[in-house]
Amino acid sequence: MSNRKLDVEFTLWLKERQTALLRAARVICFDAQNAEDVLQEALADVYERWNKVKEHENPEAYVMRVMVSKHADMRRKWLRKQQSNETSWELAENIRAISDQSDDVAQRLLVQSALKTLTGIQRAVLVLVYEYGLVLKEIATILELPIGTVASHLARGKAAVAAHLELIPEFERSIRNEISGSKDRPQILFGEVVDE
């Protein structure tokens, strides 16, 4: 079948069902803007496969299944973005409360910025270990993860925080030396401090 004939066939099919499909998308997504986006992405996929989809016993049901998948993809992307942006303020507050009262605001901000580099699951594991005193087996049960995965998240989280806390002072010292014009400044190469 020619592309032109497929285009016309798909367009006619869509004109008959567009309102019903948009209504279904709104039910799936719970809001108009996301519904339109999901429907558009689903229709683009269906259009590419129209030769096969038109043979389906219920093309509308197929489109709805594609919309559900597209909506799930959109939610997963949104959740990943939220997890990468979320900050464990509770953990930051607890670390601040435990830290020596002579620590200045810069040190607290440094800890908060270190925590921002962690994934949500790494922060959760660190909170459960350091705030609640749980052991890996208990954390694995709570988070429904294998013990090895919990241990890996703990190790990676601790390493990321430690690396962040160690590197920042070297960068600050380097910047201060740069501003003051000092020749005696360390050079940072591949995460290591090297004296010139």
UniProtKB/TrEMBL annotation:
SUPFAM superfamilies: Sigma2 domain of RNA polymerase sigma factors, Sigma3 and sigma4 domains of RNA polymerase sigma factors. InterPro entries: RNA_pol_sigma-70-like, RNA_pol_sigma-70_dom, RNA_pol_sigma70_r2, RNA_pol_sigma70_r4_t2, RNA_pol_sigma_r2, RNA_pol_sigma_r3/r4-like, WH-like_DNA-bd_sf. The keyword Transcription applies. Residues 18-77 form the RNA polymerase sigma-70 region domain. It holds the Pfam family Sigma70_r4_2. The keyword Membrane does not apply. One of its GO terms (molecular function) is DNA binding. One of its GO terms (biological process) is DNA-templated transcription initiation. Residues 109-160 form the RNA polymerase sigma factor 70 region 4 type domain. Keywords: DNA-binding, Sigma factor, Transcription, Transcription regulation. Belongs to the sigma-70 factor family. ECF subfamily. This is Unannotated protein. It comes from freshwater metagenome.
